[in-house]
Amino acid sequence: MRFFLIFSFCCFTVLSQRQYFDHKFLTIRTSLENEKVLKELAQKLDFHRFSSRLNGKNLILLKPHEIEKTKDLLKKNGTTFEIKDVGYIKYSGKGIDYLSTRGDFNISTYNDFDLQMESLDSLTQKYKRKVKKIVLGETFEKRPLVALKLGFESKNSKPSIFMNAGIHAREWITSSSILWLINELLSNESYKEFLKDLDIYIAPMWNPDGYQFSRTKERNWRKNRRFYEDPEDEEICVGIDLNRNYPFKWKHQKCSNENGSGPVGGSELETQALMKFLTKNKDQLKGYIDFHSFGEHILYPFAYKKHIYPTNVEELKLIGKKMQKAIATVRDTEYDLINIADGMYPAPGSTADYAKSIGIRYSYGFELVPDGKHGIDGFNVPDTEIEPTGREVLAALRVLFERIIRDDEKTSLNQKTRTSMHL
């Protein structure tokens, strides 16, 4: 019977985007009185936006069975809230039909996974001296997990940084703005020196199965698409939150939650592929960034528990502040700099924590646009935001690139000094 159920889920799918007429959007403004209950709800409900700032806007998507229970809880705690219908969550933008695989890749809109991969192949052909394509693994549905290595070949060992986007399927702005950024790094000669001194690994789409599902079936889908049996839910589950699946401080969260973390830490093919690459190259890797949306935050570890920080937390905060200022120079966007667990909520099993746990010095998460200030909220970001978001990220990355290169130069100088003293 169990195998029949899996077959049914796989093969009998709807032909259009899911409608959300039976769901509700709940809006709550953060206050000193409701801060605790908000963080508790964040572990259970589907927060489209979480804000730790006083009077900050929290946006929550409630499923039908959650509506009355959540309203009762908030009323009991004296929390003021607004609730409205959702209707149909759909794509907002211009360009080719986002449900179609037809047409050519368009860097200014949201492309399907196959077109994204074709664009990477084109870049590797066009800029052969600067870029190399690497396949790090494959997904449950047999899609490749692809990264590009940007950088000129060198006889000497170079420091490196790894970045990934799209780990959560519905966060389309992440992979699209990073694809724009890749093209800019390769085509703009002003970044040539970075490519000489640094190897830049970028995986623009780390959850292709979930991404394709979010395009064709359910716009709000977050997880990957693997089927498994959760012993606590006692049911066949579909999808794991890949940003809760890493083994460092992993914690089981039921698959019925949006943050369902899988049967064990490190269970997913996507997780295993990234772990393998990071651990194999950890001596050269000096930086790691996991791109998400939304909220406009620069995030530093640790995520697994509040008030727990890396030994170099002050260094991470110092660089984070410089990245904040750099982002603001593009179009005056003000990113917050916060610890993941303190400023948002505990997220055990996260990618940024894992990267830091294996010794990668500069490990960050980014929550990209929007922040709700300019009439744009949620994951449904107009594609006109792709390029400006990419420019903001690139401004921040210049700060981190320069720091990593400067660290490497200092290390090389110290090694030469020690060698000359021995002679």
UniProtKB/TrEMBL annotation:
Entries under Pfam families matching the protein: Peptidase_M14
Co-factor(s): Zn(2+)
GO molecular function: metallocarboxypeptidase activity; zinc ion binding
Protein origin, superkingdom: Eukaryota
Active site: 367 (proton donor/acceptor)
SMART domains: Zn_pept
Gene3D superfamilies (alphabetical): Zn peptidases
GO process terms (BP): proteolysis
InterPro entries reported for this sequence: CARBOXYPEPT_ZN_1, Peptidase_M14
Cellular component terms (Gene Ontology): extracellular space
Keyword RNA-binding in annotation: no
Alphabetized UniProt keyword annotations: Carboxypeptidase, Hydrolase, Metal-binding, Metalloprotease, Protease, Signal, Zinc
Signal sequence region: 1-16
Residue span(s) of domain Peptidase M14: 109-404
Family from the record: Belongs to the peptidase M14 family.
Identification of the protein by name: Peptidase M14 domain-containing protein
Species in which this protein is naturally found: Mesorhabditis belari
